[in-house]
Model the fold of this input.
Amino acid sequence: MKNVLVFPCGSEIGLEVNRALAYSKHFTLYGGNSVDDHGKFVYKNYISGIPFIDKPNFIDEINRIVELYKIDFIIPAHDSAVLKMAENQSIIKATIITSCADTCKVCRSKGVTYEVFQKLIPTPKVYEINEQINFPIFLKPDVGQGTKGTYKVNTKEEAIFYFKKDPTLLALEYLPGKEYTVDCFTDKNGQLLFAEGRERIRINNGISVNSKQLNNPKFQDLAEIINQTLSFQGVWFYQVKERANGELVLMEIAPRIAGTMALFRAVGINFIQLSLFDRMGFEVSILNNKLDIEIDRALFARFSIKENYDYVYIDFDDTIIVDNGVNTDIIKFLYQARNMGKKIILLTKHKQDIKETLSKFAISDLLFDDILLLEQTQNKSGFIKNTNSIFIDDSFAERKEVFDTLKIPVFGLDAVESLLFWKV
Done:
């Protein structure tokens, strides 16, 4: 069992690492952040208040955390953190899961990336603002991520306006075609074991929120050239975009995991786990189910309710069983509650033999600490003997009666998601 620190853990990268390693028996996750964000809702072992990477005490604090929690590996989950930690690998007391500092330096600057590869593979034309330019063009920070600080401009006046705001912008040819990410993995021997693409179909704030696998032999060819030019170890990716004639042009390279790599994780390729095992000295291999799969991502809610309870009283009809099927969200919650030592009492007015019905739906009566059968006219509040309880029922009338009488928290089916525990 190895201890892994993810920093910053609330980025889309950090959240994907959490999902990728959540159920691994080989790694214990620690999430670290400078600013509290979504990471505190999903990392069970959460460390807040880590200095920003540009603070002089950043490395000292990272080393303090490494020693305190016996951290073996650190996964930097932001491009700037990748470079900072790679540059300081010699003094950081844990192994950084990225490629060497020289590779990270090239990848962090788009201008340097284009200089390195302009004679090897197609790169975008870079304009000087005072030269003759065929508009539209695309302005992008030399050091940046996502679409932050990027602009499509149609006139020289627009370009000058944005350059005054940010002199580090690169003026690039505008590429009108489709955009692709090619996810790659290079082992400790320098062998490129995987390079397959996915189309970035819908993008939100620079993040690919809808993506689908796309096989193109050119992706492998470009990956081989990049892999031979820079020194990678573990997971990395590059992005390309089409010119009007369909030619693929390099946009950027990153020596880290990407959030939408979950697409390939679903077919059997857990890039971050492969990277960790590779760093541990194992010979790793790729298992690819070759499924026709599409990923779509959206904002997803996690909740933290400051409510302590020891007992769960829950209805059966139209609550545990809905539309003649098991409500799997409810079942997930009940097993989580059981794992946490809560007592579960089934409180039902079910008209048939309840144990036969439970058996029909493959639910063991052992899931419940007690099963209480009520007459149709009886109030459920009269059977709730423990005030340190919550009550779950699909019926508003039943919930209101319990709440008005006992003043305990009551939940409808739509609110049960707020009770689920997601931290790993």
User: Anything to note?
Assistant: The domain at 311-419 is CATH 3.40.50.1000 (Rossmann fold).
